[in-house]
């Protein structure tokens, strides 16, 4: 695989911790090893409310996955170990891992709690040296944090991310320049970043099942059906992706929080109290990130699992708690007039911009 470059090309690493939350729980509780571990709500409390945050690979053998209702996980595997998420601990471990990764490249970009991109083009001469560096990263994380990670190595972020997911857990997958399209072609289009279930279904409807199908499709038809994203999907399917590691930082599109009641409720005082608490949490995150919001959306899930959202865009940007709470309460009123019992309520703010340089509204 030793390669010589006529010109210096990019070599990107994507590092992803293996089943991060549940792996930490296993580390802290050795008796959890080789048993199905599910992080989320306790199904024995509140009649199994909430969802699976993550689970280890033993639990995944029972078809359990992130986002699944905890009650369904309980039906699939009642003998699993169910633990509540300890975000304070997870953040602490994440910070230590990111500190390790930063030492390997100045061009570093975190990707959530447990993933990161590194541009190591100036640290290595070729993909063989990149493998040596990746192995060092894996060993250092294992030695210091007693956790395993998977690594993808490729010419760009997109392919590195897909490669990283290719051979989990504790994997290391390399895709060199001239093998990118061959590697991508047989994979499901769902493996592509930013192609979710809805987009996958639309692509399937026109006969596109694999990334190879997408690469060979008429780009003009893709643009007709998906707009500018159609052209991007087509480029990405050919392994073309130019985004830089640690590029211009973007403001988040939205910030939200939601909460599931221990039992379905139609007590309006209780619901509005919960709504106030949720708004407080969202507000604290807005202030911490120095952001202003303009759109507020309330989400309601009834006892029958039917879910609805209702949003309103303000005439001005704000970072005031009273603006958030007042708007959320008005939006919630429409959901409460029918006296139906509610299972979950949430609040999300969007149309965000930085408050730096702005006159404070607090």
Structure overview:
The protein has 362 residues and is α+β, with helices and mostly antiparallel strands. It has four domains: 12-19 and 88-179, Alpha-Beta Plaits; 20-86, MutS, DNA mismatch repair protein, domain I (3-Layer(aba) Sandwich); 185-237, DNA polymerase, domain 1 (Orthogonal Bundle), CATH 1.10.150.20; 254-354, Dna Ligase, domain 1. Helix content is 38%, strand content 23%. The chain has helices at residues 20-28, 57-60, 70-76, 87-102, 127-145, 157-166, 180-184, 197-205, 211-215, 219-226, 228-237, 268-288, 321-336; strands at 12-17, 37-40, 52-55, 81-83, 107-110, 115-119, 149-154, 172-174, 254-265, 291-302, 307-318, 342-350, 353-354. The strands form three sheets. A five-stranded mixed β-sheet has the order 5-6-1-7-8. A hairpin with a 4-residue loop joins strand 5 (107-110) and strand 6. Helix 10 (219-226) packs across helix 11 (228-237). It is globular and about 65 Å long. It starts with 11 loop residues before the first strand and ends in an 8-residue tail after the last strand. The model is unreliable at 1-7 (pLDDT under 50).
Name a few traits of the molecule:
362 residues, 4 domains, alpha+beta, 5-stranded antiparallel beta sheet, 5-stranded mixed beta sheet, DNA polymerase, domain 1, MutS, DNA mismatch repair protein, domain I, Alpha-Beta Plaits
How is the secondary structure organized here?
Layout: E1 12-17, H1 20-28, E2 37-40, E3 52-55, H2 57-60, H3 70-76, E4 81-83, H4 87-102, E5 107-110, E6 115-119, H5 127-145, E7 149-154, H6 157-166, E8 172-174, H7 180-184, H8 197-205, H9 211-215, H10 219-226, H11 228-237, E9 254-265, H12 268-288, E10 291-302, E11 307-318, H13 321-336, E12 342-350, E13 353-354
Parallel strand pairs: 2-4, 7-8
Antiparallel strand pairs: 1-6, 1-7, 2-3, 5-6, 9-12, 10-11, 10-12, 10-13
Helix pairs in contact: 4-5, 10-11, 12-13
């Amino acid at each position: 695989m030793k390669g010589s470059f006529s010109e210096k090309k990019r070599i990107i690493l994507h590092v992803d911790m293996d089943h991060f939350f549940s792996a930490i729980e296993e580390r802290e509780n050795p008796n959890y090893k080789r048993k199905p571990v599910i992080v989320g709500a306790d199904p024995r409390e509140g009649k199994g409310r909430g969802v699976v945050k993550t689970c280890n690979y033993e639990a995944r053998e029972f078809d359990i996955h992130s986002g699944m209702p905890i009650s369904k996980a309980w039906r699939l595997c009642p003998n699993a170990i169910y633990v509540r998420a300890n975000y304070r601990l997870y953040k602490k471990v994440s910070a230590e891992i990111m500190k390790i990764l930063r030492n390997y490249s100045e061009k570093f970009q975190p990707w959530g709690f447990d993933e990161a991109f590194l541009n190591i083009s100036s640290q290595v001469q070729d993909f063989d040296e990149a493998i040596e560096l990746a192995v060092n990263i894996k060993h250092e994380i294992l030695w210091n944090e007693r956790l395993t990670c998977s690594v993808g190595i490729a010419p760009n972020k997109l392919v590195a991310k897909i490669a990283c997911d290719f051979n989990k857990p504790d994997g290391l997958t390399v895709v060199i320049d001239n093998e990118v399209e061959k590697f991508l072609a047989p994979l499901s289009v769902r493996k592509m970043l930013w192609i979710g279930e809805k987009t996958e279904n639309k692509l399937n409807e026109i006969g596109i099942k694999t990334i190879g199908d997408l690469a060979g499709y008429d780009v003009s038809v893709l643009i007709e059906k998906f707009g500018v994203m159609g052209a991007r999907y087509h480029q990405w399917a050919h392994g073309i992706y130019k985004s830089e590691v640690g590029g211009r930082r973007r403001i988040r599109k939205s910030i939200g929080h939601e909460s599931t009641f221990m039992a379905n409720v139609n007590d309006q005082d209780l619901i509005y109290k919960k709504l106030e608490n949720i708004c407080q949490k969202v507000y604290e995150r807005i202030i911490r990130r120095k952001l202003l919001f303009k759109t507020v959306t309330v989400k309601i899930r009834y006892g029958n699992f039917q879910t609805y959202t209702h949003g309103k865009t303000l005439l001005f940007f704000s970072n005031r708690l009273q603006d958030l709470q007042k708007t959320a309460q008005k939006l919630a009123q429409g959901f409460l007039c029918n006296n139906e019992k509610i299972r979950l309520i949430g609040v999300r703010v969007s149309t965000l911009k930085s408050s730096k340089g702005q006159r404070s509204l607090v």
